[in-house]
């Protein structure tokens, strides 16, 4: 076994966190955890993971569950396409693979939402296959350990990282080693001010020996994050019920429910944008009243300010033109529907 791997595994044996998915070889919960951990911090994932497995303890229960219940269990975890892909993949495994999570990379990566990293994590942790699982934490560790100077998003550097990581993975318990590398990156070799004096491979880390650990990895040029304005209409019928719509499956926050409205065009006044999007979404003409609240939120590639207004003038039956469906709902029953975090903030303001 590579001496570096020995040191990292020994460190991991004494410093591993007792995370709920660390004590299983069952591929289903490992799969769920790895999908949830994409773009999301461990501490955020833990309660969602535990609740999710209580509701869907087996792949079969997940596959047979209505998609809206899966979305509700995922509510506020973000990146909702992960939930859709996980549900679709579970259905495919149940119907086409006899309910058994496949143990081959080709079959795993043929499932919705499973890329190279997730496939490697499942193969190594659940099936003991000697493959490197290279996530963002591991990339950072490798760049520092071997002093890789090129931008981390370049294919040449990505290939170097994979090759070097592959050489380190031991034949015995590769899953533990991959988790150790992730843990090292998450707790010691962190992006800013790494705790080098707590690192088990400090004396062989080329970046530390050269005093350049703070400058690695080299990040690619960041694009300016655009800011957009969105609108939402708060409309009540004669019974006091609120009008909500379900988003299209393949759009932003697909499948979740929201208050009707949409994205403003550049330089478009929010009230004008709301009147336009109401016609496009539901075929309705409205009069825009007082503003209820404005909520700011950041997504992965853009930021938004969502302006919610009380609206009147509903004289026609809504039509689902650019939404999946619409409903009138008593305010107390809104909690039964999966909403985004932004829409939940609007509900609190009502």
Q: Keywords, please?
A:
350 residues, alpha+beta, Endonuclease III, domain 1, Nucleoside Triphosphate Pyrophosphohydrolase, 2 domains, three-stranded mixed sheet, three-stranded antiparallel sheet, 6 strands
Write structural notes for this entry.
The chain is α+β, with helices and mostly antiparallel strands. The protein folds into 2 domains: 213 residues, Endonuclease III, domain 1; 123 residues, Nucleoside Triphosphate Pyrophosphohydrolase, CATH 3.90.79.10. It is built from 14 helices and 6 strands. The strands form 2 sheets. It has a 3-stranded mixed sheet, with helices on both faces. The chain has a 3-stranded antiparallel sheet with strand order 3-2-6, with no helix packed on it. Helix 2 crosses helix 3 and helix 8 crosses helix 11. The protein is elongated and about 75 Å long. The N and C termini lie far apart (61 Å). The mean pLDDT is 95.
Q: In brief, what are we looking at here?
A:
The chain has 350 residues and is α+β, with helices and mostly antiparallel strands. Helix content is 43%, strand content 12%. It has a three-stranded mixed beta sheet with strand order 1-5-4, with helices on both faces. A three-stranded antiparallel beta sheet has the order 3-2-6, with no helix packed on it.
CATH topology of the largest domain: Endonuclease III, domain 1
Beta content:
5-15%
Instruction: Evaluate the radius of gyration.
Output: 24 Å
Helix count equals 14
Helicity range of the residues? Answer: 40-55%
Corresponding CATH superfamily of the largest domain:
Hypothetical protein, domain 2
Mean of residue pLDDT? 95
Overall outline: elongated
Strand order of the largest sheet: 1-5-4
The domain count comes to 2
SSE order, one letter for each helix or strand = HHHHHHHHHHHHEEEHEEEH
């Amino acid at each position: 076994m590579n001496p570096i791997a020995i040191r990292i595994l020994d460190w991991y044996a004494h410093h591993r966190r007792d995370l709920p998915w660390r004590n299983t070889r069952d591929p289903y919960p490992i799969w769920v955890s790895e999908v949830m951990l994409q773009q999301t911090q461990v501490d955020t994932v833990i309660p969602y993971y535990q609740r999710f497995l209580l509701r869907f303890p087996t792949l079969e229960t997940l596959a047979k569950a209505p998609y809206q219940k899966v979305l509700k269990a995922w509510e506020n975890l973000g990146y909702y396409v992960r939930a859709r892909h996980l549900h679709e993949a579970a259905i495919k495994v149940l119907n086409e693979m006899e309910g058994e999570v496949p143990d081959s990379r080709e079959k795993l990566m043929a499932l919705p939402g499973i890329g190279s990293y997730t496939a490697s994590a499942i193969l190594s942790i659940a099936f003991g296959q000697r493959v490197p699982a290279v996530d963002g934490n591991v990339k950072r560790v490798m760049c520092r350990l071997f002093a890789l100077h090129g931008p981390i998003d370049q294919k040449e550097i990505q290939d170097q990282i994979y090759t070097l990581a592959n050489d380190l993975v031991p034949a015995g318990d590769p899953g533990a080693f991959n988790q150790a590398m992730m843990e090292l990156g998450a707790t010691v070799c962190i992006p800013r001010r790494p705790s080098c004096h707590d690192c088990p491979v400090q004396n062989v880390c080329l970046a530390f020996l050269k005093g350049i650990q703070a400058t690695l990895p080299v990040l690619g040029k960041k694009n300016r994050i655009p800011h957009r304005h969105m609108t939402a209409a708060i409309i009540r019928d004669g019974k006091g019920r609120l009008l909500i719509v379900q988003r299209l499956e393949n759009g932003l926050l697909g499948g979740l429910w929201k208050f009707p409205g949409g994205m403003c065009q550049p330089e478009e006044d929010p009230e004008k944008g709301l009147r336009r999007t109401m016609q496009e979404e539901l075929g309705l003409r409205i009069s825009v009243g007082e503003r209820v609240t404005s909520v700011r939120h950041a997504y992965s590639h853009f930021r938004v300010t969502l302006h919610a207004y009380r609206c009147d003038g509903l004289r026609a039956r809504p039509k689902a033109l650019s939404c999946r469906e619409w409903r009138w709902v008593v305010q107390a029953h809104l909690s039964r529907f999966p909403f985004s975090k932004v829409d939940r903030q609007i509900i609190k303001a009502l």
